[in-house]
Amino acid sequence: MAINNKRKQRKHIRSGGSYSSEELSSLTMNDGTTVVYSVNGDIKRPICGSIDVHKKILMAAVCKTDPETLKATFYVRKFTTMNSDIRTMAIWMKEHGVEDVCMESTGKYWIPVFNILEQNGLRPILTHPKYVKQAKGQKTDFRDAIHMASMFRMDLVVASFIPPADIRDLRELCRYRLKLTYMRTSEKNRFQNSMTISKVRLDSVFSDPFGKSASAIMGYLISTDPEQVSDDEILALICHCRNVKASDEEILESIHGYEFIGVQRDKLKIIGMHIAQIEECIAMIDHKLEYYRQKYDGIIRHLTTMIGITPMSALYILGEIGTDMSVWRDDASLASWAGLSPANNASAGKKRSTKIGNGGHYLKPLLVQCALAAVKSTKTEPYFHNKYETLKKRRGHKKAIIAIARKMLVAIYHMIKKEEDFHPIDQEEIIQNSRKTKGMNLTNVIAFLKEQGADENTIRLVEEQCSANAVEESAKEKQPTSGSADASQPIQGSVKGSFGSTSNRVMP
Question: What's the whole-number average pLDDT of the chain?
Answer without folding.
Answer: 80
